[in-house]
Amino acid sequence: MNLLLNGVRPVEILLVDDDAGTSELTMEALSEGRVRNRVHWVENGEEALEFLRREGRFADAPRPDLVLLDVNMPRKNGLEVLAEMKDDPSWRRIPVVIMTSSTKEEHVRAAYDRHANCYVNKPVEVDKFKDVIGTIEDFWLGLVRYLAA
Description:
Largest sheet: 5 strands, parallel
CATH topology: Rossmann fold
CATH architecture: 3-Layer(aba) Sandwich
CATH superfamily: Response regulator
CATH class: Alpha Beta
Number of strands: 5
Structural class: alpha/beta
Low-confidence stretches: 1-6
Strand order of the largest sheet: 2-1-3-4-5
Shape: globular
């Protein structure tokens, strides 16, 4: 049964990004979407792993159905988080969308080497940014079928 498409519960999205403005814009765009979702925002890679492990203030955190992950962050970068996620059997099926401003080929290659599900560059223009978020939502939450747990 695909809980993400049958309306039983909202889709749980973990947004990992240290930029408050970008995160706010992402959450706004997702709130305007067609798929009912709840976005949980953390500001760095260490918090992302605490969320996934349900540690400390994240003890009651839901298992995310999708992770939107920035590459360039303080404390623990997105590529490090991605590697830990995909190395852990309990997290490896969670789709991870790398959503970053980095266009460096080495980052793209490293993300796919660590089994990112896709790599998306954040547009600078607000309207284009919202379009990208809408496309991610349509594809990952509306079209793709995957296991919720």
